[in-house]
Amino acid sequence: MRKLLISFAALAMVLGGACTPQAQPGEVVFVKGGPIKNTKSGLHTMSIAVSDFYIGKYEVTQKEWVDVMGSNPSKFKGDNLPVESVSWYDCIEFCNKKSLKESLKPVYNIDKTKKDPNNKNDNDDMKWTVTFNEGADGYRLPLEVEWEYVASGGQLSRNYKYSGSDTIDEVAWYWKNSGDKPLKGYWSREIIEQNHNQTKPIGLKSPNELGLYDMSGNVREWCWDWYGDTLFVSSGTERVWRGGGWLGVEDPCTINFRGYQAPNVKWDDTGFRVCRNKPAETGEAEGE
């Protein structure tokens, strides 16, 4: 069976603390595309291949957000902490403003006056209509399949359960290790609050095979897609998030867990990372 080549352009047509010394917020990594090789991925048996693209090496930090947006919505303050308490709409707007700041063509057309007919969520009072500028070279949110592809290691995959390891504590901040002391037993919000759990500076855990940090844990990451029983649905009530976060349990930190929430919702465990399309003339090797 011919593999389905997933590219952003094709889909658009049919639809406070210090960080580690090596951490450079805003850095993007070139990812060579191809089929999903990780056998633990829910997409491994599907005829899907991902196109080459760039993705943020780290989650977007609060300093990056303030530099672009001018204010900080986050609950837990710190320049090198991932930004959180941002809605899907906030992230879309950030991508366009960051693109303009860097003299790139914005990916999204945002119409705040026209209600999106594909948004079926009665509790979403925003419902901006967001469409694509074909061929734009600016920043955007990852497609869900792109996110899983890079989280699973791309063509360098070693078949890990989490992004970069089968041992969650090596790569992820989640409810058991994101506070004053390690927690055991069953998840409890009261215990988590007493333990002062929160987000952590980017890049402190081990990277995955592609050199990406915090794909599992720290903050859940918004993706472009509507959530549905199948991939590539054209409408819905919630947008997809991936990766798990500091507040959550282990399962959402796996590479194939699909989460979702209304696009206007803002939680203190939800942030994002950015992507860019690969220019036609670019010829870097994977991981550079």
Question: Can you characterise this structure?
Answer:
The chain is of the alpha+beta class. The chain is built from six helices and 13 strands. Strands 2-5-13-8 form a four-stranded antiparallel sheet. A four-stranded mixed sheet has the order 11-10-9-12. The radius of gyration is 18 Å and the shape is globular.
Helix/strand layout:
Layout: E1 4-6, H1 8-14, E2 28-31, E3 34-35, E4 48-50, E5 53-56, H2 62-69, H3 88-101, E6 108-115, E7 128-132, E8 139-140, H4 144-151, H5 168-171, H6 189-194, E9 220-226, E10 239-242, E11 259-261, E12 270-271, E13 275-277
Parallel strand pairs: 1-4, 9-12
Antiparallel strand pairs: 2-5, 3-4, 5-13, 6-7, 8-13, 9-10, 10-11
